[in-house]
C-alpha cells in the first residue's frame, strides 16, 4: 500500500499505548486482499488512559454506530474468501456476533468482528458481480437519516445515491481493483446506534469558512488545518482543509476569533465568503440543528498527522 496516496476520507482509530503499530499492521494485512491504492485507516496511540465513564458507559442499544464491510467477488475464488475470513478468526480479532443477539435491527445471520471496545466492527459479504468494495457504514436513527444525508452531502460536496429508501451511498474512491464507499443506513424506528468513542472520520475540504455556519454542531479548531465537530449520532468528524496560502490565512483568522470568543462557536461575521446557493432541483443542503446535543470533547492530540 502506498503510504503517500491520499484519500478524500480517512478513518482515525485510537488505541492503548504500545498497540498502534500491531493494529496498523493487522489492518494493512487485511486490506492487502482488496489491493487498495490509498491509505484509508490510521491507528494512533491514546496518550491519557480512558476515563471511567468512557470505559464503562453503556447505552440501551448495543448496535454499532460504524461498521466496515468488505464486499469480495466470488469469481476470484472461494479459497481467497476463506483466507480473508480466516484472518478474522485470529487474534487480535474477536467475533462480536453475541453482542448483537438482543438487537432487533441486526440480521442474525451476519457476523461482525472487532479489534477493541469503542472501535468500528468489521464483516465480510460475498458479491457475484461488480467491483470489490470497502464500505464504511454509519448507522443513523430513523429521524436523523435525511438530515445526515444532507450533512454529508454538504461536507463531501457531492450527492449520494439513495438505495431502497433506507441507504445512501457515496463513492469516495474508485480504483482498478476496488472501490471505497461511505454509506448512511437508516435504522428502524426506536433503534439508536452507539458511536465508537475511539474512532473519527476525517474529510478533506476546500474551504472551512463557508462550511462552519452550516454545520449542526459546534466546530472547533484543533490545529492550523484541522477542525472537529460531530454528526447527528455523535460520531466525531474531523475536517482537514486543503493547503493553500489563502486558506491558511483564513483558518488562522477563524481560529483566533474562536479563541477570542471562548464559547466554542464560530461567529457568523467571520465567514470570509458568502455561501453559494445550491443548484435548482438539488436536495436542500440546509441541515437541522440537533436537539439537546452536548458539545463534543476535543479529540486527543495523538491523532495521526495525515
UniProtKB/TrEMBL annotation:
Stretches assigned to the FAM124 domain: 9-240
Protein source organism: Zonotrichia albicollis
Superkingdom per UniProt: Eukaryota
Positions with biased composition (Basic and acidic residues): 279-294
A cellular-component GO term for this protein: nucleoplasm
Region (Disordered): 276-306
Family of the protein in this entry: Belongs to the FAM124 family.
Highest classification ranks of the organism: Eukaryota, Metazoa, Chordata, Craniata, Vertebrata
The name this protein goes by in its record: Family with sequence similarity 124 member B
Amino acid at each position: 500500500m502506498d503510504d503517500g496516496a491520499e484519500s478524500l476520507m480517512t478513518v482515525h482509530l485510537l488505541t492503548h499505548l504500545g498497540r498502534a503499530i500491531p493494529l496498523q499492521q493487522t489492518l494493512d494485512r487485511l486490506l492487502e486482499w482488496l489491493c487498495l491504492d490509498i491509505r484509508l485507516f490510521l491507528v494512533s496511540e491514546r496518550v491519557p488512559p480512558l476515563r471511567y465513564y468512557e470505559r464503562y458507559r453503556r447505552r440501551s442499544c448495543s448496535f454499532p454506530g460504524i461498521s466496515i464491510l468488505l464486499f469480495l467477488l466470488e469469481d476470484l475464488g472461494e479459497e481467497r474468501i476463506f483466507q480473508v475470513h480466516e484472518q478474522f478468526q485470529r487474534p487480535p480479532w474477536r467475533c462480536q456476533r453475541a453482542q448483537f443477539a438482543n438487537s432487533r435491527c441486526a440480521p442474525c445471520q451476519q457476523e461482525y468482528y472487532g479489534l477493541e471496545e469503542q472501535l468500528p466492527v468489521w464483516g465480510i459479504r460475498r458479491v457475484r458481480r461488480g467491483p470489490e468494495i470497502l464500505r464504511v457504514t454509519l448507522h443513523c436513527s430513523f429521524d436523523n437519516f435525511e438530515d445526515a444525508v444532507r450533512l454529508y452531502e454538504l461536507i463531501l460536496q457531492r450527492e449520494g445515491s439513495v438505495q431502497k429508501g433506507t441507504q445512501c451511498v457515496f463513492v469516495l474512491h474508485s480504483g482498478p481493483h476496488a472501490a471505497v464507499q461511505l454509506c448512511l443506513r437508516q435504522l428502524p424506528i426506536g433503534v439508536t446506534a452507539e458511536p465508537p468513542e475511539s474512532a473519527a472520520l476525517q474529510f478533506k475540504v476546500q474551504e472551512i469558512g463557508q462550511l462552519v455556519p452550516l454545520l449542526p454542531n459546534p466546530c472547533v479548531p484543533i490545529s492550523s488545518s484541522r477542525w472537529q465537530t460531530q454528526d447527528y449520532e455523535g460520531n466525531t468528524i474531523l475536517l482537514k482543509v486543503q493547503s493553500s496560502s489563502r486558506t491558511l490565512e483564513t483558518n488562522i483568522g477563524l481560529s483566533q476569533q474562536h479563541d477570542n470568543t471562548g464559547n466554542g462557536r464560530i461567529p457568523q461575521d467571520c465567514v470570509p465568503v458568502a455561501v453559494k446557493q445550491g443548484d435548482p432541483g438539488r436536495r436542500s443542503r440546509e441541515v437541522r440543528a440537533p436537539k439537546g446535543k452536548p458539545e463534543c470533547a476535543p479529540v486527543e492530540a495523538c491523532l495521526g498527522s495525515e
